[in-house]
């Protein structure tokens, strides 16, 4: 129950509290004060999806999700992210009592983690692996900044956090965890952060889909699925999504694949998102955290949430690089919120 150190401070984001605060203020200041006629934060937007790369890459995109996030009634915040440091099946809980930031420490909600642990459904993150993991940590300074804007300078008033890694799982396993989380999603005093980047394109990610002879083919398919470059199962509508449907650039292929994933998330149908990821093989690293929360929201929708609630709305999409050549690489970032 010690403190998880801010291991990526000074490299992935600024370590000096003043410089970090200024950087986050700049990112948030670049986001409009209102979206779709709604003053930000969006009332009731208790769930967001945001990226977790270094702030120089993904910070401006993440700010769109955080500016939409409504923390006014929050008394705890779940943070769900994927595991990059070890293979994980199912979900894992932190064993730390605090998460360090350059601003100060956020307290882990021991009562909630104990309650979840007692279900027998969760493993524990190995402490060293948790310290090395960035998917949760990259959201903590943003969250602190939004706490500060919502509750003032007294950190004793800041809600505790519930850090959870969500690993591999079948469609039914995701639905099962979604049902488990649904009671917490239903709680109006609980907010949710889902950590995910979108398409990772390049040989370093073993995923290089491009357009060839009328279909999308993965240049790295022979390494993964056999001796030939099988077309991906996805069939996007190029006529509306590409500037040149006959010869789209690689970065347009990336955008189309990400748009298919985002459309599936916005549909609110967990099975649609799961199928889209399976068909396109899109390297959305937080696909399981997204899937678990979608399944939970879907369970709530069956109980009746009201018009326009329980579905995500994407408000920003960016890429680290507009890929044109096979030896290049790119990571995509997207931000969304859902009103419950």
From TrEMBL:
It comes from the Eukaryota. This is UPF0103-domain-containing protein. Belongs to the MEMO1 family. NCBIfam families: AmmeMemoSam_B. Pfam families: Memo. HAMAP family: MEMO1. Residues 216-240 are annotated as: Disordered. PANTHER family: PROTEIN MEMO1 (PTHR11060:SF0).
């Amino acid at each position: 129950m010690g403190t998880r150190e801010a291991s990526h401070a000074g490299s992935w984001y600024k370590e000096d509290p003043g410089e970090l605060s200024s950087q986050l203020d700049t990112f948030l200041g670049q986001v409009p004060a209102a979206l779709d006629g709604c003053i930000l934060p969006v009332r009731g937007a208790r769930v967001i999806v945001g990226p977790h790369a270094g702030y120089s890459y993904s910070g401006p995109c993440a700010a769109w999700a955080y500016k939409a996030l409504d923390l006014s009634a929050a008394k705890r915040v779940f943070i769900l992210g994927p595991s990059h440091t070890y293979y994980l099946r199912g979900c894992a809980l932190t064993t730390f009592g605090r998460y360090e930031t350059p601003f100060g420490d956020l307290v882990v909600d021991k009562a909630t983690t104990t309650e979840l642990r007692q279900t027998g459904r969760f493993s524990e993150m190995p402490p060293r692996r948790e310290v090395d993991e960035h998917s949760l940590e990259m959201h903590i300074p943003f969250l602190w900044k939004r706490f500060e804007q919502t509750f003032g300078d007294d950190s004793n008033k800041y809600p505790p956090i519930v850090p959870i890694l969500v690993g591999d799982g079948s469609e039914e396993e995701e639905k099962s965890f979604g049902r488990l989380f649904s009671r917490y999603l239903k709680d109006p005093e609980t907010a949710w952060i889902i950590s995910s980047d979108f398409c990772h394109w390049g040989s370093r990610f073993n995923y290089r889909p491009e357009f060839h002879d009328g279909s999308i083919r993965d240049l790295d398919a022979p390494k993964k699925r056999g001796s030939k470059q099988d077309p991906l199962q996805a069939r996007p509508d190029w006529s509306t999504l590409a500037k040149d449907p006959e010869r789209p650039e690689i970065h347009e292929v990336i955008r189309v694949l990400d748009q298919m994933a985002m459309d599936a998330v916005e549909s609110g149908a967990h099975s649609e998102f799961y199928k889209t990821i399976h068909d396109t093989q899109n390297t959305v690293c937080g696909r399981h955290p997204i899937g678990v929360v979608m399944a939970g929201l879907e369970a709530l929708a069956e109980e009746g949430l009201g018009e326009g609630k329980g579905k995500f709305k994407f408000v920003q999409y960016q890429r680290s690089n507009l890929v044109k050549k096979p030896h290049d690489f790119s990571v995509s970032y997207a931000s969304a919120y859902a009103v419950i």
